[in-house]
Amino acid sequence: MTEFNLIEALRNRSLIHHITNENNLNKIIQNNSISLYCGFDPTSDSLHVGHLLPLITLRRFQIAGHRPIILIGGATSLIGDPSFKEKERIFNTNENVDLWTNKIIKQISCFLDFNCGNNSACLLNNNIWFKKINVLSFLRDVGKYFSINKMINRTAVKQRIIRPDQGISFTEFSYNLLQAYDFFFLNKKHEVLLQIGGADQWGNISSGMHLIHRRCKKEVFGLTIPLLMQDNGMKFGKTESGAIWLDINKTSPYKFYQFWMNIEDIHVYYFLKMFTFIDISEINKREQENKNKKNIISDKSLLAKNITLLVHGKDKLLSVERITDFLFSKKDIHITISDFKQLKQDGIPSVEACQIKDLQDALVKTSLAQSRTQAKNMIISNSISINKQKIRKNHIFNYNDKIFGKFTLLSRGKKHHSLLCW
User: Fold this and answer.
1) How far apart are CA 253 and CA 347, in angstroms?
2) Dihedral of the CA atoms 245, 246, 248, 253 (nearest 10)?
3) Known catalytic residues?
4) Tens digit of pLDDT for each residue in 268-283?
5) For the motif 'KMSKS' region, what are the positions (predicted)?
6) What are the counts of helices (DSSP H) followed by strands (DSSP E) for the chain?
7) What distance in Å separates the CA atoms of residue 354 and residue 191, rounded to the nearest whole number?
8) Which of 106, 68, 67, 53 shows the shortest CA–CA distance to 274?
């Protein structure tokens, strides 16, 4: 294959949390093109930033000459993975799962090449084989290889069992066997040697390896990736608060970009290594040169631009850059009506302006001021702008203040903005 050491590269980018028999896996992928897979359960209509690392890791494998398989959990999403969840998931209907599957497939297609020869990405749905399986055959042919004693002692399960208010249903408990069978099936039908996933999937991945070893006497491998955690210690997920979605209708490209611009300084170079394809020597050089963090904003911008480009494409990135310059630079930037719609969606606070009387009233209703008196003082002190133009006295809004006849940008200082929507 190549002298390039993919496992070493992944480790240098902090993309390995767990890995099984690293030496054997390394030898195999150094000399052969392998098939590997990662599963995505369509339990919502969009992926989120927590899914980016597995997708990017699959892409790294494909660039290195390996064949990535995306497994859509059409069947397993009807059960729900209980791993490290505090309570049971809400069951989804078949209709919703089918609808969400189509949306997620479109998102995934942006990350991998499905037409590049022998290592073209492949997309499968586990509903294809699970709907053909007889429950008695499954319990006999799969269930007999698993010890209840070991399963209930796994951390993800134990955390639920010790909570009398929640517990864990047999439905959720069976999820582990279903995912194990996925690995077994893919190994048998598609010669898959490696499963990757988030660190919370270690128990499910190891169950698949165990089943393959017991039934087929083969060695297969597992690799998990560190979870992306929020500042409150919770992982980013569909059911966790504060999810940043890949769907532009749920999280606008501008808010997506700002998410990366607003990360803690200590994460910048860590994330540049994990989420971007910038040469690691360049990232290390930037980190060394910026120990005093004087230029940290430029490196955050580099991170935000690379990830936004990867997820949303060039046109949306250009839109984000226009909006950013419009809000925060002194340049005379003209943004489009679709840019304003991003701002209204989730970019900055917005209010319906039809009942607003004057500028003082607008400042109060947008919470840029707490009272008309405070608003008056702000205007007099020259800290208020309408569409980036300083206003020195109270103002009655007119048609000229309405960009595209619909939007007015109200600003207090350089950083506080609100959008009036007419």
Assistant:
1) 9
2) 90
3) 43, 48, 51, 85, 89, 179, 200, 235, 238-239
4) 999 999 999 999 999 9
5) 235-239
6) 18, 11
7) 63
8) 53
**Contact in structure between 42 and 73 (CB atoms under 8 Å):** yes
Is 248-332 in the same CATH topology as 6-225?
Answer: no
**pLDDT for residue 84 is more than 60:** no
Distance CA(258)–CA(256), nearest Å, equals 5
Domain extents in the chain: 6-225, 248-332, 348-422
Task: State the CB neighbour count (10 A cutoff) for residue 12.
Answer: 14
Q: Is 238 marked within a binding site?
A: yes
β-strands 389-390, 384-386 pairing:
antiparallel
Return d(Cα 295, Cα 291) in angstroms, integer. Answer: 9
Would you give the end-to-end CA distance of the chain in angstroms?
Answer: 61
Mean of all residue pLDDT scores within the chain: 91
In the block, residue with structure tokens 């929020």? 230
**pLDDT band with cut points at 50, 70 and 90 for residue 170:** confident
For residue range 175-214, list pLDDT tens digits in order.
999 999 999 999 999 999 999 999 999 999 999 999 999 9
pTM, full prediction = 0.90
Q: What's residue 171's pLDDT?
A: 83
Maximum CA pair distance of the chain?
81
CATH architecture observed for domain 248-332: Orthogonal Bundle (1.10)
Per-residue pLDDT for 130 more than 50?
yes
- What would be the CATH architecture of the domain defined by 348-422? Roll (3.10)
- What pLDDT is stored for residue 167 in this prediction? 75
d(CA 367, CA 374): 11
Average pLDDT over residues 250-256: 97
370 assigned to a ligand binding site: no
